[in-house]
Design brief:
The structure holds two protein chains of two kinds. Chain A is built from 19 helices and twelve strands. Chain A is α/β, with parallel strands linked by helices. In chain A, the strands form three sheets. In chain A, strands 1, 2, 3, 6, 7, 10, 11 and 12 form an eight-stranded mixed β-sheet that branches. A two-stranded antiparallel ribbon of chain A has the order 4-5. Chain B is mostly helical. Chain B has a single domain, classed as Orthogonal Bundle (MetI-like fold), CATH 1.10.3720.10. Chain B is about 75% helix and about 0% strand. Chain B contains twelve helices and two strands. Chain B has a two-stranded antiparallel sheet with strand order 1-2. In chain B, helix 5 crosses helix 7, helix 7 packs antiparallel against helix 10 and helix 11 packs antiparallel against helix 12. The chains are: A alpha/beta, B mainly alpha. Chains A and B meet through helix 3, helix 4 and helix 18 of A and helix 11 of B.
Chain lengths: ~425, ~300
């Protein structure tokens, strides 16, 4: 009880992973004698709040939820504490078991701060600690698939055929749900997972400088198929589709399948959703020549504010929230669907719970070895990835041919990289 | 004696409070000015810097380079174009519709009074909520508007999802929300016009269109200018409807000033560019309001002269 009486304040996103933490927080308070309060914001405005709090140097929040991509902005800005100081600096509890966190997640949340350096590479700073994650795979409507007589697609060309058949034969539903809004969030789920599977990268490095690689032959091959798939079998108003629309359409039976976060499909299989109990899950390797999936991951994490006046106490909370005991609680009793620890995935009680969702555990097992962030970390991530999404929108709307659109995108990104000293 | 004793402190405190009174009275205005000027000066200061939060090592004064770069930046001119198009389209349509409805409701009757109150309801809806309602209503799968147009054989209209129809869709939402604002101002104006010129025209048998163009419209002009000014200033600063419906897309089709500045700051943490965009928007807004206020003063003088 080294920090007994200390008050911590957290900034949290409204999410089942945060709900799990709040449900268990009394245990932390009893264990440490600390007082914990929190603010919860919906995701639409959450990161605006984080940016406003951190950029103003506010000491209000000691720790907050973040995605790994955000730390590529927050870290270089000097707003985050490098948690290696605690993890590797002898301040972690003996039973914390940092090595028990899935390796892809550990590396995905660590970066040196040098544009283009590999995540988790030499000199990487641990900007945040994973709390839970999402891998991108297929969630599909088993009932609809059986009725139409189609199988779960094995690769992207196959997915295009299956999606087209669903659109044609389902009597109203469209084939494939993927995100399409003018946001970086359109690129990171299914699109980047498939893109990486085709061997394409977002940037290459030449002499320490970044160069856009969206116009490589592999990238063009994949993007052409992706664009055609949306045009043929995606939602009609795809350009406004975010996580919510993709999910609710699947849950309502308006789409046959989605290539998005696995936990999105998980949540749509319960609650009041029309299709609850009808959904199945499958790992997905987009490239017919690929041997395994390359799921890009979104990692909900906890980070510590540089402006916190209670850093050691905040570390205790981060350590507890990402430790085995809370992780086990969240996975067994709450909706911490994708726990970060290998030990929890092997827990019989959790396995029994998750096996009620057909194929979920299998898709995780098949995906886990190569589940990681496939973006190149750099401080202009949001500018450039949003522009990528905007270019995709123009191509899907047939405003510009795919080849030309991609070339223009690459040229524009190269120009911006150069202007900012990165290219 | 007692009078003198009592009057001495009053004589001292009286002039002091009298001296303080102007400062006290102007204090609220001063506080408001500080509240406006501090952010304004800060924004002006940031706009002269290369200042991206994620790249603190590159922060430095570039003076007017940011503004200069805008002039050679196709994206900036696109923002100017779509912002102007949005403003002119929304204000133009709202003015015509608002005037039409106000003319229809001009006569005082129970039905007209009830209708004018009912028509105000969209104005009570927060624009962001209105945008989300319209987003649902225009959903091709289950949206009521998509269903309505499908009855006329239009089955593939993509509303805000296609670059070709996105501007039309957000203008439609803006018109739905804000036409009542113009309608109620013009209705108040119409009902306050003097009756004598209209009675004289009626006695002389002047045709209706002549009355409208030569009497009603000129007399209503100060009200129209006022309504236009308010809407123009609001419309050029549009954010909520467009962001809630499209986030500025598809492509860059709806990257208005405020949307672009918001993305620059909150998404891309580019403080310098965001501040420079806002300064330009301020300059446009200031110039427009000056033109309109001058026009309004002229019209008011003319109207008073006519009286």
């Amino acid at each position: 009880m080294a920090h007994k009486g200390t008050s911590l304040k957290l900034l949290l996103n409204k999410h089942p992973y945060a709900d799990a933490m709040i449900a268990d927080i009394e245990n932390f308070k009893k264990m440490t004698g600390m007082n914990v309060t929190w603010d919860v914001f919906p995701e639409d405005v959450y990161f605006d709040k984080v940016t406003a709090a951190l950029s103003s140097g506010s000491t209000e929040y000691d720790a907050f939820m973040t995605g790994a991509y955000m730390t590529w902005t927050y870290g270089p800005a000097g707003w985050l504490v490098d948690l290696n100081e605690y993890i590797k600096g002898g301040k972690a509890a003996p039973n914390y078991d940092w090595e028990g966190v899935l390796p892809g997640l550990r590396s995905s949340t660590a970066w040196s701060g040098k544009p283009g350096d590999a995540l988790g590479g030499p000199g990487a700073k641990q900007w945040c600690v994973p709390l839970g994650f999402e891998a991108n795979n297929i969630s599909y409507n088993r009932k609809m698939f059986d009725k139409i007589g189609v199988q779960v697609p094995k690769n992207l060309p196959d997915m295009m055929e299956v999606a087209a058949k669903i659109t044609k034969d389902s009597g109203g539903a469209y084939g494939i749900g993927v995100r399409g809004s003018r946001s970086w969030a359109t690129i990171h789920p299914g699109f980047l997972s498939g893109y990486a599977n085709y061997g394409a990268t977002d940037f290459t490095q030449e002499g320490g400088k970044l160069k856009a690689a969206m116009n490589s032959p592999q990238a063009k091959e994949f993007t052409k198929l992706w664009v055609k798939m949306i045009q043929d079998s995606g939602p009609k108003n795809w350009a406004t589709y975010t996580w919510y629309q993709v999910g609710t359409d699947l849950g309502a039976g308006a789409s046959g399948m989605i290539f998005d976060a696995d936990i999105l499909g998980y949540f749509m299989n319960g609650g009041d959703n029309k299709e609850r109990g009808n959904l199945g899950y499958a790992a997905f390797a987009a490239n017919p020549k690929a041997t395994e999936p390359t799921a890009n991951v979104w990692v909900w994490s906890l980070a510590m504010s540089s402006f916190s006046k209670n850093k050691d106490a905040a570390w205790d909370l981060i350590q507890w929230a990402t430790g085995t005991d809370h992780c086990m609680f969240g996975a067994r009793k709450m909706d911490l669907v994708n726990p970060i620890r290998t030990k929890v995935w092997q827990d019989p009680e959790f396995k029994e719970k998750i096996n009620k969702y057909p194929g979920y555990l299998d898709q995780y097992t098949a995906t886990a070895p190569k589940a990681q962030i496939y973006f190149t970390p750099q401080p202009m991530f949001f500018d450039l990835t949003t522009e990528w999404a905007a270019a995709l929108q123009r191509m899907v709307a047939k405003e510009i041919p795919v080849d030309e659109g991609i070339d223009k995108l690459a040229a524009s990104l190269d120009k911006q990289l150069k202007e900012n000293g990165l290219g | 004696m007692s009078d003198t004793t009592h009057s001495t402190p009053a004589a001292v405190s009286g002039p002091r409070s009298a001296r303080l009174l102007p400062y006290l009275l102007s204090l609220p205005a001063l506080l408001v000015c500080v509240g406006i000027l501090v952010p304004f000066v800060t924004a002006a200061y940031y706009s002269l810097q290369r200042y991206k939060l994620s790249m603190p090592q590159r922060r430095g004064f570039i003076w007017f380079d940011q503004y200069w770069n805008f002039f050679n930046d196709a994206d900036f001119w696109h923002t100017v174009y779509v912002s102007m198009l949005y403003t002119v389209s929304t204000v133009g349509v709202e003015l015509l519709l608002g005037l039409g409805i106000a003319l229809l409701l001009r006569e005082r009757s129970k039905v007209n009074n009830a209708a004018s109150v009912a028509l105000l309801l969209p104005l009570m809806t927060a624009p962001a909520i209105a945008a989300l309602m319209w987003k649902l209503m225009t959903n091709p799968g289950f949206g009521v508007l998509s269903w309505v147009i499908s009855l006329f054989g239009v089955t593939d209209f993509k509303w805000a999802s296609a670059p070709s129809s996105a501007m039309f869709t957000v203008v439609l939402v803006d018109v739905w929300v804000y036409t009542p604002f113009i309608m109620i101002l013009l209705l108040a104006g119409l009902r306050s016009l003097p009756t004598q010129p209209f009675e004289a025209a009626k006695l002389d048998g002047v045709p209706a269109h002549f009355v409208f163009f030569r009497i009603t419209l000129p007399m209503l002009m100060p009200y129209m200018v006022t309504a236009t000014l308010f809407r123009l200033l609001d419309s050029i600063q549009q954010f909520d409807i467009v962001y809630a419906m499209t986030q500025g897309g598809p492509g860059d089709s709806l990257l208005l000033f405020q949307v672009s500045a918001y993305l620059d700051f909150f998404q891309y943490t580019n403080v310098g560019r965001s501040a420079a965009l806002m300064m330009i928007l301020w300059a446009i807004t200031y110039a427009l309001s000056n033109v309109f206020i001058k026009q309004w003063l002229k019209l008011r003088e003319r109207t008073h002269g006519a009286h």
